[in-house]
Amino acid sequence: MTINSRHPRSSRLVAVIGFALLAGGCYVLPAAGPNGAYVKSEAVGDQSGLPYDLIELNAGVAAVLATRGSGTFAGTFKDRRPPADIPIGIGDVVSVTIFEAQQGGLFIPAEASVRPGNFVTIPDQVVDRSGFISVPYAGRIPAANRGPAEVQGIIEARLRDRAIDPQVVVAVTNQRSSQVSVLGEVNSPVKYPLTSAGDRILDALARAGGPKGQDYDTWITLQRGGREASVGYGTLISAPSNNIYVQPEDTLIVSRQAPAFMAFGASGANGQFKFDKEQVNLAEGMAMAGGLLDDRAEPSYVFLYRLETREVAERIGADMTKWETKQVPVIYSLNLRNPGGFFLARKVPLRDKDIIYVANADGVEWAKFLQFVRLHITTVLEADAIKTVGQ
């Protein structure tokens, strides 16, 4: 006789245990995420999913991450000088006043009259789409993209042979070009003309009544010549190098978006957590998520998931040969069994859309496996007991 016929219960128990072992090896057991050792082995193995670089979080890496800002105006826009003399532009309203040395000239009659002086003011006119204005006896005068002094010189040259020692004053009475727009989450959206004195970004924001939100959830986007960059309002205030001069036709867009990170795995709470100040470091983020669960977490397997720029990825030693994208998926590994790990965590600022994952300890995985086996063995024993009673 075979073993199966003599000991059917033992045979079934062996089958159940075998199935449980197979299930455990095939990751059938429930889990909140990957095993910590699997995260590390996949980084150097054949990555079947989205590939990533695994970077050990040490003092050097933390220093790079601590100095990397969310973006800078100074780094994106190299010309940080104040605007030069603001030129006349299309749509501007221009006033022209012509002076002559004495009466009896082209514009000043010889007859005595009550006049404030030997000058005449031409009615205000708008610079047309072709960039010209009209002056009697001087014809069409090119004005766009020229300063008032240059336009004055052109008019004087054209009138020199007809008027008596003419001198001209050109003034912009209504500047409709060379303006800056401040839009979005400000108290008074505004579009205003620049002056040669120059305005910095904070000056422009002040003209719009300032942002509505808090410094940590307010972002300033500067659009200029087809390029743009965004900086947090708190960073703009704390780093004066970002408070650059605005230029004609710049647009400032103020938006509100509280940065947030996510926490998964063996942390006290899983979910999305919004920043409650401008900068939150990794240690503070773990605290916001309830810390590490003492009965589940493996402190040596704390991971920070982030999409890094190529520049930062190169600086932290990522393998750039396999990346052609602008952003590189990086998983930072932090060992909190090392007493200095918490100091490292304090140096690493979190970014918007970061993910903190805390893996389970190996003992927890074994406990789940044994529970899985016990559940199936109990099921077999109960079935045999019911069968015996039925007989």
From TrEMBL:
It holds the Pfam family SLBB_2. InterPro entries: Poly_export (IPR049712), Poly_export_N (IPR003715), SLBB_dom (IPR054765). It comes from the Bacteria. One of its GO terms (biological process) is monoatomic ion transport. GO terms for molecular function: polysaccharide transmembrane transporter activity; porin activity. Keywords: Cell outer membrane, Ion transport, Lipoprotein, Membrane, Palmitate, Polysaccharide transport, Porin, Signal, Sugar transport, Transmembrane, Transmembrane beta strand, Transport. It is found in: Cell outer membrane. Residues 179-254 form the SLBB domain. It is a multi-pass membrane protein. GO terms for cellular component: cell outer membrane; pore complex. Coiled coil: none annotated. Transmembrane segments: none annotated. PROSITE patterns: PROKAR_LIPOPROTEIN. Residues 82-173 form the Polysaccharide export protein N-terminal domain. Its main location: membrane. Belongs to the BexD/CtrA/VexA family. This is Polysaccharide export protein. The lineage of its organism: Bacteria, Pseudomonadati, Pseudomonadota, Alphaproteobacteria, Hyphomicrobiales.
